[in-house]
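Good morning C.,

I know you're traveling, so I'll keep this short. The sequence:
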Amino acid sequence: MELAEQVFALTEPLPRKEDYGLTSQIRRSALSVPGNIAEGFGRHHTKDKLNFYYVARGSLAETKSHLIYGFKVGYFQQSELTALSQLIENIWEELNKLINSFTQP
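The tokens, ready to paste straight into the viewer:
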């Protein structure tokens, strides 16, 4: 959830022309991460859980891609990109641990 909150704050000052472009895309992908983790947690079957955790990981990669784009076109500062990239890396590692807990014998 922290990632979604930080992405929301980061995108607040983006130009209005991005409301239906980058702003919408990056907010939705960032919010999809905790949403899919929560939905996976609520599932009973391991296969269902894993599916949602994999989707969360995909949304995490999508969010990072949007952040890199925003940096390259001058919307975000290097320090903002670095901080959020580190948070994404931490979430990625935790998600992998969670996934591995269901897939390792």
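Safe travels,
E.
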